[in-house]
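Q&A FORM
Asked by: J.P.
Topic: structure of DoxX family protein

PROVIDED:
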Amino acid sequence: MAVLRRFARPLLASKFIRDGYAAVRNPVVPAARGEVGRGPVPAVSRLRLPDDPEQFVRIQGAVRLGAGVLLALGRAPRTASAALAATLVASALTPYVYPKAGDADPEAREAERADLLTDVSLLGGLLIAAADTHGKPSLAHRTRRAAGHASGAVTHRVTTVSDRVGDVADRVGDVADSAVKTVSDSVEAARKRLP
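REPLIED BY: S.T.
REPLY: Here is the structure written out as tokens.
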């Protein structure tokens, strides 16, 4: 599986590296199309995003370039995949997906649908890569397992201490019984000697 990851991650990252490099070098702002997507999205409007669309495209390109390189090199692949997925969602929210109201060019609409389908497919691959733990258990699983081991160790120690306390109590009881018997025997012997 490690060999598969070694080849699959750079293949998945290659498009993002190329697109990110192109966006940083020569940012192309997609033209707004139709009325859909022109108004502010409430959740996004609270973010402090640059007002200049060209600068926004460059920032998005830099994120794609950096995260793509990290994914290709296998450094922080889960974080890089999540960052790339976020840039894909951001680009899918842009209004380029929606054709103009009067646009009847079926080839342009088909090309836009193909681009959207490509982005959605890449998003699926990135989500799988973001969830991939490289064959190792997740942090939550390791924490639960460590807690189980700790609980077992504590239970074992408590049982051991309890057994030892029980042994000591038995010995103390035996010594006390022996002492009582010895004292009783001594008292009985003393009574017999008395007139």
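FOLLOW-UP: The helical segments are 2-25, 42-45, 53-73, 77-92, 106-131, 139-193.
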